[in-house]
What we know:
2 copies of one chain form a homodimer.
Chain A: E1 3-8, H1 16-31, E2 35-40, H2 46-57, H3 63-70, H4 72-87, E3 92-94, E4 102-104, E5 113-116, H5 119-126, E6 130-134, E7 137-139, E8 145-147, H6 152-163, E9 168-173, E10 194-196, H7 197-205, H8 213-222, E11 226-230, E12 243-246, E13 259-275, H9 280-290, E14 298-300, E15 307-315, H10 319-329, E16 336-349, H11 359-369, E17 376-380, E18 383-389, H12 393-403
Parallel strand pairs in A: 1-2, 1-9, 2-6, 3-6, 9-11, 10-12
Antiparallel strand pairs in A: 4-5, 7-8, 11-12, 13-15, 13-16, 14-15, 16-18, 17-18
Helix pairs in contact in A: 1-4, 6-8, 7-8, 11-12
Amino acid sequence: MTLIVAKFGGTSVADIARIERAAEKIVKETEQGNKVVVVVSAMSGVTNQLVDYCGQISSMYDVREYDTVVSSGEQITSGLMALALQKRGVTARSWLGWQIPIKTNAIHGKARIESIDTDELHKRLNAGEVAVVPGFQGVTALNRISTLGRGGSDTTAVALAAALQADRCDIYTDVDGVYTADPRIVPNARKINKIAYEEMLELASLGSKVLQTRSVEMGAKSGVPIQVLSSFGDEIGSALKGTLVTTEDKIVEQELVSGIAHSRDEAKITVVKVKDVPGVAARLFDPLAEASVNVDMIVQNISAEGFTDMTFTVPRGEVELAVKTIKENVDLQYNDLIVDNNVAKISVVGIGMKSHAGVANKMFKTLAEKNINILVISTSEIKISVLVEDDYTELAVRSLHAAYGLDAA
Amino acid sequence: MTLIVAKFGGTSVADIARIERAAEKIVKETEQGNKVVVVVSAMSGVTNQLVDYCGQISSMYDVREYDTVVSSGEQITSGLMALALQKRGVTARSWLGWQIPIKTNAIHGKARIESIDTDELHKRLNAGEVAVVPGFQGVTALNRISTLGRGGSDTTAVALAAALQADRCDIYTDVDGVYTADPRIVPNARKINKIAYEEMLELASLGSKVLQTRSVEMGAKSGVPIQVLSSFGDEIGSALKGTLVTTEDKIVEQELVSGIAHSRDEAKITVVKVKDVPGVAARLFDPLAEASVNVDMIVQNISAEGFTDMTFTVPRGEVELAVKTIKENVDLQYNDLIVDNNVAKISVVGIGMKSHAGVANKMFKTLAEKNINILVISTSEIKISVLVEDDYTELAVRSLHAAYGLDAA
């Protein structure tokens, strides 16, 4: 008997009609003899409304009370989903974070799951019940509601799947899978059938916002296959028509390159003419780390006459904080501080490149042929990223998609 | 040191501005050295929205899941109120029903409070914390959220006040107290300063919807004084400017009559020409009781030739159910069934009438002088109610208000 955790995001439970539609899918799963745990997000818009209420009172609100407020959104959906299932003759009940319990640490607003008691859940699932669990929430050792941070419902789903040793975790969302590139930019992008956790991680952190990074990490750790699929068609998860994120060895036809990701949420900062002595990088990046600035790509130019330029990228929203931190807390002499917001990061991702040479070279050649200037380069075992001028984003993505043979036939 | 439970209804916490205003009052109470527990309703409209969601899925929904859904409304307000208090420098935290816990029986949707653990609350109050408690909710022995039924937040407040042995329970609402009559009908109605629980009970059940009946009963049982006051002015509860509901002996200047209540939610049903034999009343009213029809006033006419007419009143919303029950389940022969929806109940309420004769007589005489026909009469120790034609409601209330000397000077 297959045990599935099925998660529905906010747009998939946006109103009663969609909740009913989601319930239909679960009914079909149970009719196939599957045991199901349903994880639900808040109805779309609800969480924003609740967050806004807290912000109206104070920008410095107590995150413990914020958690009590915002966790209500998922609580509401969980009760409604249980009702929609019961209406269809399926025995169902809602299990709030504190009822299971899903125990977390006490970092309110960004809590991490520490343990999940599954005995009672297993008992109910074996008795033929469907369990409906609100995503995003847990309970601390002090018996207070905690939340896992934005997108935490994915984490709840994968964590539950891991704890229950589920056969699969289905993430129903508003896209029907993970694509080789953003279909809005590359019309003949293809849906990927299977992808390795590591690749998904690179794609997730590179702007393909299909799955939350933490949930993919958790999937990789536990080995639970995660399927991304659309909640809007008639298909159910067991038809396996979405994109399955799984371990590398389960992917028989491994492509050299899985996809081309891009991110426009980048800004480039250059610290001009700093003295090139040991410890310069530490003196620059330690204060930035302390200020929680997410530094991504880093390049240090070749030294000339004892001086060098340091270039790095940060998310656009953190530019102000980064500049302020450098000016106030970095103990370095420099000539100038140049910020460039008109940049985009283009990445070629593929687990196959681990064992193949020439992947990077093809990227550089392709971009050169199109006269696209590369500003910064950064590589990992399964990814090559370059920073280009923002205006060239679409051209770069389309050219690379074709160059690596990803275009649909 | 005075311990106060202060409850704010839905209109008093309708938006963030009103929540902040309510928080201001609590701050002032703490500045006077009072210990405070705040009980909050859902922001007005929220509960209706949540109930509507459940109804959209099914009219026969599982009340356990309904409770999980609708209890969220008060949960949200409790967190927001805690934030509004913290912003003003008051240490505050929300305590959900399951966190205190407020233990109830398992009659979901209409649960009754069985016990409240107050040890931890007392500890926190003594340490100077304000506790914010969502009204309307508790937790069952099976660890599920239960709700107390509509208006249950008043019950939560008074039950908490009783369990904590509070000095007073302040019910902040959209009126500034209990009046000698509905001010919309009697412009010179007066606000009552003090009123006995028994009188308040009669007024509450007779259509003065200021306090929920159950909460008044609970107040009477525990002896906690309940103050009804407005949340919209600048006054705080400790100024004692509202109406205090208390024990009879605390009311020094006892009036003969406290107020004139009226209710238009009445319908009169007459069962015409039934055989007048022992057991007739039981045969008629037992099935109605089983069908949960709330029969109020009952009159049996003098028998003529072995036959009699039975007349009684029910809430208008239950007329259909009552008629159906009589036709299908009452084993009685009768000639006709007459329903009259155009009736109103007018009541003179006063604990003073226990020891005074002539109160009823004055009522009958006053109504006669205005040519108002009395359809049914019913009396209790502290109340005389008559049924009149609906059209005469305002005239009857105003005449009686003047006759008993209740008009403001």
